[in-house]
Amino acid sequence: MPLITIKVTGGAEAPTPEQKAELLKGATDLVVRVLGKNPATTHVIIEEVDPDNWGVGGLSATVRRNLTSKPAK
Question: Is 2 in the active site?
C-alpha cells in the first residue's frame, strides 16, 4: 500500500480543486507505472502548509512572495 504525501503552501497560492485532482491522479499513475502498484490501494495525501510555516533561504514563503510581488524600481 503506497502512501504518497504532497506538501504545498496554502493561502492565496494554494492549488485549486482541479489542480489537486490532477496531482492525485498523476501521483497515483506514476506509482502504478514505475512501481507496478495497484491504484486501488495507492493513497495520496495533499497537505497545505501555511506559508508562514514554510521557509526557503531563511525567509518564510509569505515574506518571499511579498518581496517578489513588489514592482522593481
Answer: yes
